[in-house]
Amino acid sequence: MITRALAAFAAACPLVPPASALAQAPPASLAATALAAAEGAGPISYPPSFFAAAQPTTALDMVQRLPGFVLESGDNVRGFEGAAGNVLIDGRRPASKSDDLEEILRRIPASQVARIDLIRGGAPGVDMQGKSVLANLIRTETSAVQGLAALAYRHLYDGRDMLGLRLEGSGRLGQMAWEASLVGGQGPDDGAGEGPRIRTDGAGVPLIVSFVDSEGTGTNGTLTGAAERPFAGGQLRANGRLFVDHFTYDELNLGPATHEVSREVFDLTETELGASFTRPLGPRTSLELIGLRQTANETIESQFDDPAYRGRFDLESETTETIARGVLRWRQTEALSWEVGAEGAINTLDSATAYAENGAPVVLPAANVTVEERRGEAFAKLAWRASPRLTLDGGLRFEASDISSEGDVELEKSLQFAKPQLSLSWAQDEHTQLRFRVERTVGQLDFDDFVASSSLNTGVLLAGNPDLDPAQEWIVEAAVERRFWTGGALVVTLRRAEITDVVDRAPVRLDGGKLYDAPANIGSGVREELALTLTLPFDRLGLKGAQLRGEGTWRNSEVEDPTTGETREISGLRPLEWEAHFSQDLPAMSSTWGVDVFGGWRETYYRYDEISTTKLRTFVVPFVEWKPRPDIVLRFEIPNVTERGLRRTRTIYAGPRDSAAIAHVDDRAIDFGRMYRFRISKTLGG
Question: If DSSP codes are grouped into helix, strand and coil, which group holds residue 9?
Fold first, then answer.
């Protein structure tokens, strides 16, 4: 599948704010915070003055500058527990799954942030959501009506011009706090572009030499709103989101003996309605209730034509997810807290696909299916500060689910998993902390794997498989954190996962004998990772206001290939991912300049008759930001100044890879050129 468009080009606009006066979590005592800082354990509080030189506009600007912290927006999975990011807002996780955490932070103005607490290794009364490090953003309360209007303009190397618009507003009506936003715009598919294509046979003799010209554009809009007010002795919050996306991809492949035309059209409509209720039940006990319902309707139309072949693939799918969750928290002492709760979810998928070759229908495995999953989970957790230097965070979750499928594949099955977790953190001194975690996780089944899919411009047809089990992992992790200078931090993390029921690719055979590639559980595997996170201020090196932030992960994985029986890496896992961000604040000029670098990566997929590899070259983005007035921000940047691109190499075999020879190798080097982006935003009210 091609890279989707950079949806919501307008999302790059800085957001302002909702000023919803939410109930704030009780701030930690200054004495406790001072003790934690002195011992190197517990939360580290960062007041607005720590970020002042950078003149942040939004809470996101501040979170991204936390030393040794890497923002995780959460995973797009079914269920609520497993989709958590690593930022709390006023001590609570946002009661939304589809509203991206970065977007939520963009909507909080920097002027509304009282402080940010960095929680490392756990703390009493805090649900770490399985994370080693969390940021807790504490807001001030305000009754002022605030808003933001932002406009973004992007000029592409191929002459296209794209606009993005963002409107935000928030305020209070009596006891009710409200917020609303409208974001819309266009974005390009940066996996499309121009470049040569060469197809050779197994001996390297050219079969096709042509030139690819491709273009993808996404147009979408997002409407969000929320309201909160006191209710029944607690706080009741309701939120809603509507997202509409239209994406088109066109490709023309021309050569001396080649004339291929392909077109893909995606339409997606998502909705979310959610509500959360929190209420104290006593001085040390509180209750939280969450309800959430999501829907997604998607259609895909894919066509491919050349002089000898005409293919068409169509898909219509509707998914729903309904979640109910309750949590009871008890703070037994200042050093010990408990949490018990349960979560229930109903997930459904109704999907129909059709495929035709030269006008004749072709049967695909699991083309039309209806799937329902009923899942329940109960959990108990504790957080204990055993000493000023030692913190323990542990828990046990038990999950049970029933899955049924009708249509092309009929099945019923039940799954049960116990998921223990234990984390320890030890503060060696005020600068150094050691962390250890062992946990059993269970992956979330992806309903997209249950149905057939295609990418006709590459000739790939994938079967569906509703009879998948989720992958289970025993994860062991050790980390050391070293803080230095003022605002400097280095974190080194080692991680190993023993995986059962790896979800990868395997062949399936229809009654007629034709083989297709499909998602499948292919046995046990291993994943090993080394991750580095660095925040390096340059003040002591003579460059005042400058900072380098970087992160990188080296990854090794092993699994037995179901076709060849040989050991290989797990499909889709990138051996190396890294990025670096250099910036310098110039307060006297009310400006900031810098360079963002996103490192190249490689990912490889292993199918029974194909090995496909995609390599992305390094992406460099210089920028400058200027505040001529406190309420106006101007930003200019040059995305992809190095004009990097993608290289896709597909090695196709005449049959299964263990017995067949190479039929051909298809290689495409696609370049996506330089862009120029300008953005202006103005804060309103406040």
Answer: helix
Maximum distance among all alpha carbons in the chain?
Answer: 79
Full-model pTM: 0.86
Q: What percent of the chain has pLDDT over 70?
A: 90
The DSSP code sequence of 509-550 is E-TTS-EEEEEEE---EEEEEEEEEEEEE-GGGT-TTEEEEE
Name the percent of the chain lying above pLDDT 90: 61
DSSP 175: T
How far apart are the C-alpha atoms of 678 and 638, rounded to whole Å? 9
Q: Which helix (H) or strand (E) holds 38?
A: helix 30-39
Paired tokens of 490: 């280095």
Q: How far apart are CA 336 and CA 525, in angstroms?
A: 37
pLDDT (0 to 100) of residue 90: 85
Integer Cα distance of 382 and 414 in angstroms: 29
Taking the chain, what is the end-to-end CA distance rounded to the nearest angstrom?
A: 45
- Distances in Å between the Cα of 376 and the Cα atoms of 74, 87, 326, 344, 595 are 21, 25, 12, 4, 46
pLDDT band with cut points at 50, 70 and 90 for residue 12:
very low
Q: In whole angstroms, what is the distance from residue 212 CA to residue 201 CA?
A: 19
3-state SS record for 39-67: HCCCCEEECHHHHHHHCCCEHHHHHCCCC
436 vs 169, more confident: 436
Superfamily of domain 9-685: TonB-dependent receptor, beta-barrel domain (2.40.170.20)
Tokens 């001590």 found at: 91
| Residue at token pair 């307008």 | 10
Q: What pairs with residue 269 in β-bridges?
A: 244, 297
Concatenated DSSP letters of 561-624: -TTT--EEPPTT--SEEEEEEEEEEEGGGTEEEEEEEE--EEEEEEETTEEEEEEE--EEEEEE
Contacts of 409-415 with C-beta under 8 Å, sequence gap 24+, read: 409/365, 409/366, 409/369, 409/464, 409/465, 409/466, 409/467, 411/466, 411/467, 413/467, 415/469, 415/470
Starting at the edge strand found earlier in the chain, the sheet holding 87-89 runs 44-46, 113-120, 133-139, 87-89
Residue 462 predicted with pLDDT over 50: yes
Q: Using CA atoms, how far apart are residues 389 and 433, in angstroms rounded to an integer?
A: 9
Distance CA 426, CA 270 (A): 44
* pLDDT, tens only, 542-587: 899 999 999 999 999 999 999 999 999 999 999 999 999 999 999 9
CB within 8 Å of 139: residues ≥ 6 apart: 22, 24, 89, 90, 108, 112, 113, 114
User: So what's the pLDDT on residue 340?
Assistant: 97
Mean pLDDT, the chain, integer: 87
DSSP 132: S
Question: For 474-480, what is the mean pLDDT?
Answer: 96
Residue 134 binned pLDDT confidence (cut-offs 50, 70, 90): confident
- Whether residue 382 contacts residue 339, with contact meaning beta carbons closer than 8 Å, is answered with yes
From the centroid of its chain, how far is CA 360?
39
